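Ticket closed. Logging final result for Spore coat protein.
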Amino acid sequence: MQLNQQELQNLRHLIGSHETTEKKLNFYAQQCQDPQVKQLLQQSAQAASQTRQKLLSFLS
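Final structure:
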C-alpha cells in the first residue's frame, strides 16, 4: 500500500498525538492517589500505546 504525502503527514500527526497522550496519561496516573482513577488512566495510556503501535505498522 502506497501512502500519498497528505496521508503520510496525517499518519505521522496521529502517531505523535497518541504518543503525547500516552505520556500524559502515564504522568497523571503516577500523580494519582485514587486507585480506581489510577487504573483507568493506566488502561487509557495502554490503549493509546496500542493504537500508536497499530498506526506505526502502516509505515512499514
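The longest helix spans residues 5-31. No further action required.
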